[in-house]
Amino acid sequence: MGLIDIHNHMMPRVDDGSKSIAMTCEMLKIAYAEGIDTIILTPHYKSGHLHVAPYEIRRFADEMTRISAEYDVPVTFHPGNEIRYYSRAIDRLEKEIALTLADSDYALIEFEPPDPFEKIIAAIKELTYAGYIPIIAHAERYRCMCEDLNNWQDVLDMGGLIQINCGSVMGKHGHEQKAYTHKLLKEQAVSFIATDAHRDTVRAPYMRECVDFIYRKCGAEYADKIIDDNPRRVLNNDDID
Ligand SMILES: [Fe+2]
Questions:
Q1: Å from CA of 138 to ligand 1 middle
Q2: Domains in the chain, start-ordered, CATH in brackets?
Q3: How many CA atoms lie within 13 A of 119 on its CB side?
Q4: Which end of the chain is more exposed for a tag (fewer CB within 10 A), N or C?
Q5: pLDDT tens readout for residues 149-183
Q6: Cβ(136)–Cβ(161) under 8 Å?
Q7: Distance from the CA of 186 to the center of ligand 1, in angstroms?
Q8: How far is the CA of 83 from the centre of ligand 1 (A)?
Q9: Rounded to the nearest whole angstrom, what is the distance from the C-alpha of residue 8 to the centroid of ligand 1?
Q10: What's the gap in Å between 45 CA and the centre of ligand 1?
């Protein structure tokens, strides 16, 4: 079975991700070569920024699924968003102006790197109360997480789940983020890895090296869970323990 990428910016010209449809096609080729066969598109949703309409994300996902099959690099695309948390995020989710991942109850939520930990906890509380399951996007980017090595436990206890970027695990974003992702993996605190791909060169949809590393370092049982089982549970909107 193929790999599932739950976080990337492959939809062109809608955020700081892919610059063109040609770049998206290059990213698709890389993703396919990496063994990825399912992609949830997650354009940024940030307050005060222009947003791509949900129907356009859905239409693009359908179109890419069709085109990729036609060009012999078959990948199934699903709609989604990466939502920068703010006071009206839940209202936007409830009105389906911002999208959950593949129409599940799982919402990919990001914060500003210097945001305090209290903000992350408050967001998890509000989202779970509203019936969503928050996935904290690239947890290694937040100072408050890296600086206090126990905070991940509170995130999980509150009902949040943790996603880390493949590039961070492989040391592409500096020593601190690498060390923190390895610590999280050792503690089995991570529920998802993803590419967070923005380009076809740097920050391309590379996943395989990270997958191999996790199988080697963390054992098959946990690797299967975070690489295959959990993302599939998102697609099927099943619970994750
Ligand atoms: Fe992202």
A1: 8
A2: 3-236 (3.20.20.140)
A3: 16
A4: C
A5: 889 999 999 999 999 999 999 999 999 999 999 99
A6: yes
A7: 24
A8: 9
A9: 6
A10: 10
